[in-house]
Amino acid sequence: MSKPLFAGTMPALMTPCTPDRKPDFDALVRMGRHLVDVGMSAVVYCGSMGDWPLLTDEERMEGVGRLVKAGLPVVVGTGAQNTARAVAIAAHAKAVGAAGLMLIPRVLSRGSSIAAQRAHFDAVLAAGVDLPSVIYNSPYYGFETKADLFFDLRSRAPHLVGFKEFGGGPALTYAAEHITSGHPDLTLMVGVDTQVFHGYANCGATGAITGIGNALPREILHLVALCEKAAAGDAVARRHALELDKALAVLSSFDEGADLVLYYKHLMVAVGYPEYALHFNASDALSPSQKAHVDRALAQFQAWYASWDGR
């Protein structure tokens, strides 16, 4: 039996820029290939990390198509200004052979309405019928999908197979308690880097979508492997997982803020990928203090990891 799509560790790919601040799809594909070769199970494209609000639909579709053509398993984010555009993104993903969908709620208009969100999700799921899909639950989108809506949607769309939780510990606990536990065909994905240990060890998560894993893929894969062992009762792995999680805390915390893409692109440059130096908006930039903060945190982590007995 093949492994489910939403089991494993997936980087939320960022979109590198050319000097004229257009998407650099060649660099995007190179990074996707590198991360899968290192051990990531798939890549996610055009979630928050991919700067989807700053790209045209045509640019997003080209990026997806290029990643698929390169033979990479791609999960496509469906965030859009309206339902019709989200449906088009999902339909394109299905047509070109993407592996799955990450469903982002309706934004900007009637975002707090359960009825509007139900209709939005139904339409996107219908456009991507049979593609394994997860709900992307995040407080930053202004709507939280609860168990009753999730199972209502799933009653019409059995390819809705999981839940990506970007909220904090209580939100992951809710998803485990009320949605994914007891359903072997459902997956809980940890969606924020600060909650990997809690998601795996305490909530039964079987997958993670990572931001920091773009810059530190081997270290994040190491953390997930330790967390999986900790969840199975390995006391030594639990101790090591907690140590590694704590050592990553500052770098992981950038995943929770408005400047997450700025921080993680800066980290990509710091670890040797200059194609991530630019942003689509020329005014988007870390302050000198922010740069010094992240540089110090990276240097401290690298020194610690090199000398850590759990390595």
Question: Would you write up a description of this structure?
Answer:
The chain is an alpha/beta fold and 311 residues long. Helices cover 48% and strands 12% of the residues. The protein contains twelve helices and eight strands. It has an eight-stranded parallel barrel, surrounded by eight helices. Strand 7, helix 7 and strand 8 form a beta-alpha-beta unit. Helix 3 (83-96) packs parallel to helix 4 (114-127), helix 8 packs antiparallel against helix 9 (235-247) and helix 11 (260-270) packs across helix 12. It is globular and about 50 Å long. The two termini are 32 Å apart. The model has no long low-confidence stretch (mean pLDDT 96).
Q: What's this, in brief?
A:
The protein is α/β, with parallel strands linked by helices. It has twelve helices and eight strands. It has an eight-stranded parallel barrel with strand order 1-2-3-4-5-6-7-8, surrounded by eight helices.
Secondary-structure content class: alpha/beta
- Beta content comes to 5-15%
**In terms of per-residue confidence, which ranges show pLDDT below 50 for 5 or more consecutive residues?**
none
Q: What number is the mean pLDDT?
A: 96
Strand runs, count? 8
What characteristic shape results from the CA principal axes? globular
Q: What pattern of helices and strands is seen along the backbone?
A: EHEHEHEHEHEHEHEHHHHH
**Main sheet properties:** 8 strands, parallel, barrel
Strand order of the largest sheet: 1-2-3-4-5-6-7-8
Distance between the termini: 32 Å
